[in-house]
């Protein structure tokens, strides 16, 4: 799979001039996202002819709000990030697919760029898109967060979801281009939300690494310190001020929690085998 810079011209259309693309589907998975889902789906309503939401039986108004934008809503018990996204992808019928998380939005500039791109003949089978991510209300330019390219726009028939418990991605059978405009990502609105995600993701990542990693005592000290140094110094998190400092500390804590989880699961497995 080759990574190439897209030579497609940047869009000159404004968001008001953007028209729906008959060959574009947007897929989103969600659970209790009433605060986000309207802005998420609304950001693509002008360009997508097909919006697919896979909801894990939300207990709030997520589905009710989503009905303002699409009738293609599937309620499905949670089976993991990768499996839910693969199911959403399987429901799409359009030639091109754009994936969004519920806490993401397509910027007006990106909408125009995608519309301009698909109105022509794209040279690639998939495209990486930069993400402009916010932490506690501030756009984080460092800490390895920006541009944070991810494969999000791709040919449906050429793509599948990687099978991992966390940090799943889209595997495209072909060349990958790069778009210039941003997805807007509001992933950490509060410290509480950051720690909630930390608990969930560390547990899932531990499952992915369980067979490949052995948790030793020095991992609990060395790895978090190395992670803090990487984020705050090597990736210049200090340039993001107090937000960069807090984010780097959270990243270090997440690394420590990861190895705690791995140790816990290995201990549970060893105890189970010895019985």
Description:
The protein has 275 residues and is an alpha/beta fold. It has two domains: 21-187, Spore Coat Polysaccharide Biosynthesis Protein SpsA, Chain A; 190-270, no CATH class. Helices cover 37% and strands 23% of the residues. The chain is built from seven helices and 13 strands. The protein has helices at 37-42, 62-66, 81-91, 108-119, 191-209, 219-234, 241-274; strands at 21-30, 48-55, 72-75, 96-101, 104-106, 126-129, 131-135, 138-139, 150-155, 159-161, 170-172, 176-178, 183-188. Strands 3-2-1-4-9-6-12 form a seven-stranded mixed sheet. Strand 7 and strand 8 (138-139) form a beta hairpin. Helix 5 (191-209) packs across helix 7 (241-274). The longest helix has 34 residues, at 241-274. It is globular and about 55 Å long. The model is unreliable at 1-18 (pLDDT under 50).
Large-scale geometry:
globular
CATH C-level of the largest domain: Alpha Beta
| Structural domains: how many | 2
In CATH, the topology of the largest domain is named Spore Coat Polysaccharide Biosynthesis Protein SpsA, Chain A
The appropriate CATH architecture of the largest domain is Alpha-Beta Complex
Largest sheet composition? 7 strands, mixed
What would CATH call the homologous superfamily of the largest domain? Spore Coat Polysaccharide Biosynthesis Protein SpsA, Chain A
Distance between the termini: 47 Å
Query: What is the count of β-strands?
Result: 13
Radius of gyration, whole Å: 20 Å
Mean pLDDT equals: 90
Task: Point out poorly predicted stretches.
Answer: 1-18
**Strands of the largest sheet, in order across it?**
3-2-1-4-9-6-12
Q: What series of H and E elements makes up the topology?
A: EHEHEHEEHEEEEEEEEHHH
What class would the helix/strand composition place it in?
A: alpha/beta
């Amino acid at each position: 799979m080759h990574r190439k810079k897209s030579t497609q011209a940047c869009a000159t259309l404004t968001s008001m001039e953007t028209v729906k693309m008959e060959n574009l589907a947007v897929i989103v998975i969600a659970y209790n996202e009433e605060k986000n889902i309207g802005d998420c789906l609304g950001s693509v309503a002008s360009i997508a002819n097909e919006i697919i939401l896979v909801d894990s039986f939300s207990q709030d108004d997520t589905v009710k709000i989503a009905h303002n934008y699409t009738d293609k809503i599937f309620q499905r018990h949670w089976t993991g990030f990768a499996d839910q996204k693969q199911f959403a992808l399987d429901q799409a019928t359009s030639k091109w697919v754009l994936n969004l998380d519920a806490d993401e939005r397509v910027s007006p500039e990106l909408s125009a760029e995608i519309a301009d791109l698909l109105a022509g003949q794209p040279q690639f089978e998939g495209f990486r898109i930069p993400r402009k991510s916010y932490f506690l209300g501030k756009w984080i330019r460092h800490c390895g967060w920006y541009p944070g390219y991810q494969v999000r726009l791709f040919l449906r028939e050429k793509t599948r979801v990687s099978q991992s418990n966390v940090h799943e991605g889209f595997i495209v059978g072909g060349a990958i281009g790069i778009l210039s405009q941003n997805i807007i990502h509001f992933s950490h609105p509060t410290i509480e939300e950051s720690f909630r995600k930390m608990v969930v993701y560390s547990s899932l990542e531990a499952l992915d690494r369980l067979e490949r990693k052995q948790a030793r005592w020095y991992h609990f000290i060395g790895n978090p310190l190395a992670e803090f140094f990487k984020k705050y110094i090597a990736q210049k998190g200090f340039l993001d001020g107090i937000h960069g400092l807090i984010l780097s500390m959270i990243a270090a804590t997440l690394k420590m929690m990861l190895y705690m989880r791995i140790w816990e699961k290995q201990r549970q497995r060893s105890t189970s085998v010895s019985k």
